[in-house]
Amino acid sequence: MRRRHARQQSDGELTYRELAARTGWSHTAIAEYLTGKTLPPTDRLDALVRLLGATPAEQGSLATARDRIEESRRRAPRAPDRMVPRQLPADVASLAGRDDELALLDKLVAAPTAVVVAAISGTAGVGKTALAVHWAHRVADRFDDGQLYVNLRGYDPRVQALSAAKALHGFLDALGVPAARVPADLDAQAALYRSALAGKRILIVLDNARDAEQVRPLLPGTPTTMVLVTSRNQLTSLVGLDSAHPIPLGLLSRDAAGHLLTHRLGAERVAAEPEAAEAIIVACARLPLALSIAAARAQQSGFPLATLATELGTAGRRFGALDAGDAVGEVRAVFSWSYTALTTAAAGLFRLLGLHPGPDITVAAAASLAGLPADGTRRSLTELTRANLLAEYRPGRFTAHDLLRAYAAELSDDTDPEPDRRAATTRLLDHYTHTTHAADALLRPHSDPVDHLMTPPVAGVRPERPTTHAEAMAWLTAEHPVLLAALRQAAGTGFDAHTWRLGRALDTFLDRQGHWQDRVETCRAALLASERLGDPVAQAVAHRFLAGAHTVVNQYADALGHLERALDLYVSAGDAEGEARTHQNLASLWDRQGEPRKALEHSQRTLVLAQAAGHRRAQADALNAVGWCHAQLGEHLGALAYCEQALELLQQLDDRAGEAATWDSLGFAHHHLGQYGRAVECYERTLELTRDLGDLWGEADTLSRLGDTRHALGDPTSGRADWQRALDILTALDHPDAAAVGTKLQLA
To answer: pLDDT tens across 329-340, in order?
Structure first.
């Protein structure tokens, strides 16, 4: 019929794959039907012959022949049944959150053309065995010659890892090979094993493998088999040399973790204490093993979930709460099986990573933490990643979930002397403080210096050295959450000089990117640290920068109090430059409150002080500020005169931030003189600079005024587009100025 169908269609015979695609059956099933190895079920026979163009008479004749064969088989004497291995452990009651991995395994088994090996890897307790066994049960009926299973005990410290020879002996016995036929040589055993599997449809599960060397002799040679391997090791060699399909297993999603807890405890109990349930999920780091143990404790005790959540959230008690009574059911013990397999260098780095505040770390920071060269540190990080004690979730950035970090911290506390731990923390904070300092100098090279309280980094620290504005912004953006965590760590552990320096060095980045609440937090921490240090100059700087953080979010009373205190400290110290900068901050504060005359007084005082000190950068800022105040008072020609002086000086100094602010002032003055075309040019130059600087609020503020000017020019479409862009930025920044821009759009 295939040949006849091909002649009728003037085409080649339909291949097994084409038939599989048209029927939805497997390639293997089609092959066995058409070669006579398997008698198709009635419905499949009918569908297949219709597809090949059978007439109704032919369909009836073939159906009769099929039924006659089936009947004769039923009447024939049955040979003694051979033992078919069914070695899978019991299936899990419910598997949460692994739909993508199950779908990938389904796809792999659908149309094999060679031996399919799937390597499921992940950290301890993430559910690798549960996934493998659950899927194996789901597809067991596809492998009618049986399923083989072995626990290779690759990471079990209680017993030696199972050798490939012992695993082969077990499999050969299950396949009915007499013990007398099993050779002594490992290669010969593997060859006999492959022969015994030839042509059979068998699923093989190799659980808890230590490495590729342990697995390789157990791989079959026939495409009718499939192999699932689970390991804490990434099995890179198996993927690279044996074409294994990697299936990395991560932590459960929040929804999947909730599903697991609900399945174990019941929907009513979880719904009755949703906050406690959420706290349990967070404390267990969405790790299936930890969640299962926590759920078991809640089931057995009957205590409120809040009691368990409190226990899990208490430092030093979490691992005690995650102990099911044996080594397999204790999270700490399960982690230890991976840790004890590490080299000395990797184990030492893993412990020190427990001192890192998180959430992730680079090779450079890890090298400073360890006080070792980057090459050796990279090797240790790679080893930890292959052991799934770390994850390289982005190139060069490594992370571990909270339970592993807590385990590393516990190990360090028990193993490493306190002076060594303190020295490692110092190196880490030095790394982040000095690199942030270098990045800040590129963001605003003409701002007041941050070298007060700066000391050279200690031995072993290799700060990163961004060389361009773009590199500095990229580094600060990537490290933003890490730097906040490092500052909190420094503030909480007595590293006051680091707290002050890091808080000060972060200010420009946090301001330009609109992280204003973070800015308030870091400036407040820096102020408290400076007070503990008893350093009046550091206190003055911290007061001034905290005032700036309050000003930008319209907390004017708080800002005024800090600026007045800063001014007192600078005057007492005889610091004219600091006094000038504080007057400039006061001018900005009064300007934002709609008090241009008060702002002008402070700006003029700034100019006098800066000129007396010969500080050109402060003079330029003051000239622009005086010009802006004149513009606010309606004295626009005078404003242009001051701002043009400021612009010339700023361009000589190559101060792009100051230049951006001055172009904005010039645009405002030209707009109110009716010189709208020139105002647009000034604002567009401001936008170019603010975007280069990464100053989001500055960009939004200028866009708002540019929209005003375009409307005045008779181009309302462009004006609305500018306002909309400004509103989008301010809304994303959650800034109160968004309301005013939104009103413009509504009224336009």
So the answer is: 578 888 888 888
